[in-house]
Amino acid sequence: MVTRLVLVLGDQLSPNLTALQKAEKDTDIIVMAEVADEASYVPHHPKKIAFIFAAMRKFADALRGDGWQVDYTKLDDPDNAGSITGELLRRAEQHDASGVIATEPGEWRLIEALQEMPLKLHMIADTHFIASHKEFEDWAEGRKELRMEWFYRDMRRKTGLLMDGDKPVEGKWNFDHDNRKPAPDDVDFNGPMQFTPDDTVEEVLDLVETRFGDNFGTLRPFWFATDTGQARRQLTHWVKHALPKFGDFQDAMLNDNRFLYHSIISFYINAGLLDPLEVCQQVEQAYKDGHAPINAAEGFIRQIIGWREYMRGIYFLEGPDYTSRNVLKHTRSLPSFFWDADTRMNCISKTVTQTRDEAYAHHIQRLMVTGNFALLAGIDPHEVHEWYLAVYADAYEWVEAPNVIGMSQFADGGIVGSKPYVSSGAYIDRMSDYCKSCAYKVKDKTGPDACPFNLLYWDFLIRHRDRFANNPRMGNMYRTWDRMDDPRKAAVLEDAQAFLSRMGSGESI
Ligand code: FAD
Ligand code: DLZ
Ligand code: SF4
């Protein structure tokens, strides 16, 4: 009998994994390994490492219960080879295995490492996505602009989600204009379901505390779901109590509410615990049952079959050099307040503190607070990319990089976004209550108390005028600048430079 190894990675924890479908229970051996290389290629948030290790251990137990032979290596196992390929080589020798079956990993780094390994490799597509690489490539072929909205409509047609024959339900593809309400006074949802750590989780928490306790991020309290059953309970809880208002307040931010009406399921979908199509079908059903309005259901489904799939398509279409793109030639170092939250800018301080505590921030905090600031201030996009990859529990390069390098930092030159996502403090003030308790004044455009976003916004636009002045979506911004009188323009740019040099010299800002 020939034995083959079947690799299951920490973000492939699904019984429908293609590698498992191709394997034979009687003869093949599943290899799962907690390894130093994966746990430290960026300084991951301790909650992220604990989540992955705990979910891996439980998934391995479930596979054993289902009759599979699983060779599982814990991080502190003395024989641990320290890398995925090292572990495969060690197990191959142990079992005299003929080769490895693997589902394609979500990062070029690991795909390349597997391909270079001196073992026969059968790498299969990951079918936990709506679109295959080929479908995305065919869609992209010959298009001048790869706009998400057009791709999304194809995914609606393909899945049949929210479709009435070949037409979108309620006559429109996109209800986004209903989804920009500012922060509500009262949020009648208490956030995600929280799970008390069981023995498996506790053991992992102790390990992570010892080995990664110095990484940025608070490990305890730890409440994440760590198996599919728990993740489904969280999803159902959210559909019941929060989905109806998800659309309305999708872009809002609040000092005292970290989750608002967000689903907090990206950790679970990205690790394989939830299936994206099943999640969307559950949301569609809530709409059909009259429980959720169309703007909520459509807004949510678009995030998953639209943005999530589109981001993956871009990552694989653009290739391994994507994370080193830097068309705006930004070179400033990431300021220390991205790690210690020590800044008088309340929006940044709140977002970084929340990120430290939860390994989570929602989309608008990531895009319009930390991302916006990094872009305006001209931070090196690779440093920004490594920060996002480390600090969020849902971050794997296939989804993080297009969001950061593309959508947030415009470092890909406009493949993901047709214009840079930049704003002055006015946007943050409209969508949150951050500015009310900030040391800076959002209404001040210059002077010692002026909101730094106001200063840097103009500095950014003027710095990159040659690139953006002819962008039809940015003409208004430049016209507003051109209407300002010269002394005002000079004061804005001077104050912006002074701010950047204070930041560069490490002064508290
Ligand atoms: P909800 O707001 O409830 O949205 C529902 C689901 O839609 C999410 O769970 C997610 O699966 C999907 N989704 C929404 N927007 C996106 C998007 N832009 N790209 C991909 N999926 C999306 N998402 C990640 O999963 N991993 C990342 O590393 C990541 N990095 C990001 C970095 C930046 C700079 C930005 C702007 C966004 C990033 N996102 C990332 C997208 C988004 O912020 C998160 O998916 C979302 O905040 C997760 O929280 P949630 O589950 O409560 O999402
Ligand atoms: C993120 C991560 C971490 C922290 N640790 C492991 C690990 O020890 N073993 C493993 O199989 N996977 C881990 N992962 C997930 C991988 O990094 C992920 O599979 C690749 O980045 C591809 O998406
Ligand atoms: Fe952020 Fe400016 Fe508002 Fe302060 S005033 S919270 S720095 S946007």
From TrEMBL:
Keyword entries, A-Z: Lyase
Keyword Transcription regulation in record: no
InterPro entries listed in its UniProt record: Crypto/Photolyase_FAD-like_sf, PhrB-like, Rossmann-like_a/b/a_fold, UV-DNA_repair_photolyase
GO MF annotation: an example: lyase activity
Gene3D superfamilies in alphabetical order: 1.25.40.80, Deoxyribodipyrimidine photolyase-related, DNA Cyclobutane Dipyrimidine Photolyase, subunit A, domain 3, HUPs
Protein name per its UniProtKB record: Deoxyribodipyrimidine photolyase-related protein
